[in-house]
């Protein structure tokens, strides 16, 4: 055990706080340590937040020494967390090279989005049935509050806050639907999309459009209309896929313009040098 580990949670958190912009990761680590969860699981949660936030982007190597110093732990828990994240599909471990944040291919991403559309749609339909006559209950209040926070994030242009509550809203619907196997499968695959989904909100106006979809979905759920809820949930997931693909296309076009300078000559592209 390292000296910082021996000094307890405050030392761990002080070290973790040095990572700029990782407040949510620090909070998650604080809660897990306070709950006396195994250190490996606490470090795993912190690494997930670093991946989700983009601080560890796809293809990035998990530097055990640097991450251990940042999180205030020894290298062992970082190595253990990397193995766990490999099982979750977030990390790839290459023999003699180390662990890397996984890069998700376009075809696999499209397949996961399609699977999630079906799962999320079914969860929304189940929840609409469960909340019939209970639109003023605590579950409904929780969903309304999450969408309201996203409304505020849209008005403030707060991408990070929107991204967090967007993921939470989806998890709440799946978690409240009453089907635990569905929830397990959905969360397993959604975790992989953390590598991608943030880019869906890069373009101007995408947050507002996405939250308008949330409002329509929530209205159907609270009205107890299962089939409209299913349709809205499936359409919302597929729209998210379209937003992501558009962001990728835009990013690729920008990269080509920047990295491959050309001159236009008689309608043809001619290398400049």
Automatic annotation (TrEMBL):
The keyword Isomerase does not apply. CDD domains: WHTH_GntR. Gene3D superfamilies: GntR ligand-binding domain-like, Winged helix-like DNA-binding domain superfamily/Winged helix DNA-binding domain. Residues 37-104 form the HTH gntR-type domain. Pfam families: FCD (PF07729), GntR (PF00392). Keywords: DNA-binding, Transcription, Transcription regulation. Residues 259-273 have a biased composition (Basic and acidic residues). This is GntR family transcriptional regulator. PROSITE patterns: HTH_GNTR. Residues 252-273 are annotated as: Disordered. InterPro entries: GntR_C, TF_FadR/GntR_C, Tscrpt_reg_HTH_GntR, WH-like_DNA-bd_sf, WH_DNA-bd_sf. It comes from the Bacteria. GO terms for molecular function: DNA binding; DNA-binding transcription factor activity. The keyword DNA-binding applies. The lineage of its organism: Bacteria, Pseudomonadati, Pseudomonadota, Alphaproteobacteria, Acetobacterales. It comes from Teichococcus aestuarii.
